């Protein structure tokens, strides 16, 4: 292996550990990346802390509302609840990666494999559930409203999404390990060709981004045209929501997947032969991946809090909590009114 190739592939060792490809630490002397590590030690823990707090609060509220307050659920409700669960499971891995950026991986190889797989499962499943929601919203506009009733196909779809995500996490379970530098990253055996390694990464891009993007773009564009043609319907808010959903998805996911695709091409053709370019790639993957993760914090706002039905249930939950606090402080008080069972409402959706 010549010197230029060593320099070009060095960044795979130094990048954020979840996305590594091979252990090239033996070539680190060719491209010293102390400034990249120092950047990661500051940027990643800070960003992950903010994302963890904001995402846990929003997605926990979504799960609580759907689990305890909304009794009659539609297909979109089920997809949104699964999306919130996937986001929560993704977010709970962030403290591990924040500590890893500062101190290295200190939890051993089994936790390295499990945490990496959990990250992949929930990141991929979250993107797939976004596509499911777009298909259901398309059906709500173009087909009979009876399609929203729950049935076996809905649960089969949810099971299939989780199964596909689990299958995509198998490379993390097999290849992830902790190297002598205390880094949790995939280390592929020498008998696996670069084409196999790049194919794994490209497959993640296709299933985790390209396919959901094509489905969302097609369904929401048709939905938007249907809304525009509908007479006597307030169109501005639904169209704004559709635009916000697509725009946020593109802004948060496209940069990260472009960088991942460039990495996959570099695995095969060794395009990065300059140390400074390698450093820039390291910083780019850290920033774009963090931006992609932030989508899990925005999902509750885009898919739940924008719905009037969901906001109504939040108001009732807050009122009940306030009433419960007052009752504990003044148990002898008799309320003038009370909250009964919540009535069935339409889906919390676009």
TrEMBL record:
The chain crosses the membrane at residues 47-69, 78-99, 105-133, 154-175, 195-220, 241-259, 291-310. The keyword Phosphoprotein does not apply. It is a multi-pass membrane protein. The keyword RNA-binding does not apply. Keywords: Cell membrane, G-protein coupled receptor, Glycoprotein, Membrane, Receptor, Transducer, Transmembrane, Transmembrane helix. One of its GO terms (cellular component) is external side of plasma membrane. GO terms for biological process: calcium-mediated signaling; cell chemotaxis; immune response; positive regulation of cytosolic calcium ion concentration. GO terms for molecular function: C-C chemokine binding; C-C chemokine receptor activity; scavenger receptor activity. Gene3D superfamilies: Rhodopsin 7-helix transmembrane proteins. Its main location: membrane. InterPro entries: ACKR4 (IPR005383), CCR1-9-like (IPR050119), Chemokine_rcpt (IPR000355), GPCR_Rhodpsn (IPR000276), GPCR_Rhodpsn_7TM (IPR017452). This is Atypical chemokine receptor 4.
